[in-house]
Amino acid sequence: MTAKIISGTDVAAAIRQECRGRTEILQAAGTTPGLAVIMVGADPASAVYVRKKIQACADVGIASRKYLFPASANQDDVIDQITALGADPDVHGILVQLPLPAQFDIKAVLSAIPREKDVDGFHLYNVGGLVIGDTVFPPCTPYGVMRILDFAGVEIAGRNAVVVGASNIVGKPMALMLMQREATVSVCHAKTRDLAQFTILADILVVAAGCPNLIVGPMVKSGAVVIDVGINRLPDGRLVGDCDFESVSRRASMMTPVPGGVGPMTVTMLLVNTISSAEQSVAIAGQGTAPRARRPADAGLAIS
Ligand code: NAP
Q1: Last residue of a domain, one of 221, 236, 255
Q2: Given this model, what pLDDT does residue 287 score?
Q3: How far is the CA of 278 from the centre of ligand 1 (A)?
Q4: What pLDDT was estimated at residue 120?
Q5: What is the pTM of this model?
Q6: What is the average pLDDT across 110-129?
Q7: Domain of 195, in residue numbers
Q8: 151 and 219 together in one domain
């Protein structure tokens, strides 16, 4: 078997086209969606991610603002800035670029973001909403994976899904989203004994561990759908995922590549969450009803 390659770049392009339509409707109603990005320190990788997010906003008509603090910044000053943005009606999403310098208490900073502007979906309220299957801002990377699965027409209910990786930003919310769609979900992590005994049962295998070549062909069920979230830079400069692409793509029926798979979706889902927040603010302000109908792919995930 040779896997059909699912291009996250193509899925992201289709979703961005939808985003442009939604921002046009909002603008016609007098609201431009706004995203504020806060970065502390000068981590080069973070600077690249922030630049990409700002460019992506411009691409779909979201107004973005960037707030840069030095690595020596006082945590209270950053929290004061977040509080001010929380009260600013032109800002619909607030994002704090991680990682923060070591002296920062990440939980304290993230919980300063009002939940209705938490477009990264890291606020405890949004995490809790995910647990009970309520409507929240879904964290962008797993949300992007769900949209890829839907775009590719993958049946989720009743299938065995295995998530390799249990981080707060990818693995755990991924498992919850798959459970919400009625998959039978197993979560593996660094202390899992005999990883292959789990992965071989997966109809849907999502790998987010940050270990190149962690998953090789014989660990994959024939015909499985494999989503490789991992991004690893090899010593020779190549960017690879967590799966050995060659052997896994011979077992899987569908697979995402690295690069060009989940990566382009993460930033795109940030745009989707920011626009959803703006739509919600318009509805709450009573300027009209929410100016779009929910689409099936958003059901149970977007803000109601
Ligand atoms: P993380 O916080 O380091 O978490 C890694 C998870 O993988 C942990 O739960 C860890 O287990 C588990 N793990 C590590 N080694 C393992 C092994 N040998 N077998 C099984 N599980 C193992 O990383 P993350 O932020 O979730 O990111 C994971 C990967 O996805 C990274 O490569 C990252 O660059 C990539 N990523 C990509 C995107 C994107 O847009 N494509 C977005 C975010 C992250 P323990 O919990 O036991 O330590």
Answers
A1: 255
A2: 58
A3: 31
A4: 96
A5: 0.93
A6: 94
A7: 140-255
A8: yes
